[in-house]
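User: Sequence in, structure out. Go.
Assistant: Echoing your sequence, followed by the structure tokens.
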Amino acid sequence: MAFVYFGSNTFSVTVLEELATHNLAPSLIVTVPDAPVGRKKIMTPPPIKAIAEQFKIPLIQPSSLSRNQDLAARIQETQSAFGIVAAYSKLIPNSVIKLFPNGIINVHPSLLPLWRGPSPIESALFNGDEKTGITVIQLDEEFDHGPILAQEELAIKPDEYFFSLYRRLAKLGGEMLCGLIPAWLAGSVVPKPQRHERATFSRMLFLQDGKINPHRGAQETYNQIRAFSFEPGCWMECRMKTNKSLTLKIHAARPIPDVRLTMHTASIGLAEAGKKLVLFCTDGALELERVQPESGKEMSGKEFLNGYRSKLAIPLLP
């Protein structure tokens, strides 16, 4: 069956790989243009570009979908009955949706109408949700708004970080599509309107979303690290004996269950406790397991203490 696939990042790659293993490869991939990445602004292709080359699938990278005659011509050449969207990152206009006799279906990593928008996985983790899932909807002109074709729940593990949940949801999305597409094209799937009054919304993430504030609760801070340590990154300022500060990225942490340890300190913030790098919050503490000082490499909390202990202005606790 001929279809066009809209995607860009590793989520869309995983979904596409699952489709390809079931002989459901698209006739055309539409993705975003190469973009500058990192401090050196190196032009980098979207991850799905490599998978298109691997499977020898034609690929185009339009900068805009609106009033794009070349895009319309390329889609029409495929004679595709439908389109699939998985983490494409652009709103698809109605003029493009109408190019497909059966429309476009969208794979969204949340239990819609919960967490519409660009950061549903991060929002579920930060909010402390115990479950999330995949929802496949019929695309309409509004963002994550169309009727539901299929939905499956996925439990969030208490210690799960963003990228683990991201991979599991992407694989589930691909598996769901493999079973859904034939039934949907046969007309045996009845679209179910979303409960729009129950909608919640995620948003674009920025650097400040990852700033750690120890004056929050330990669980909220742990959820923040689980949600944002991959992107935009979690970080905080360390006090140095020179009265300067050191920016410390935090990649992984774990709650410390020993309540006695959290009572050893009279202040909130970083400390060395039991030879561990510990962040004391308002109601508990976290061991910082993986960190990265500015201009340095990622390392364990113990390695950081070994290298910076003499420079840090933090309490030393038994």
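User: And one key feature?
Assistant: The chain has a mean pLDDT of 93.
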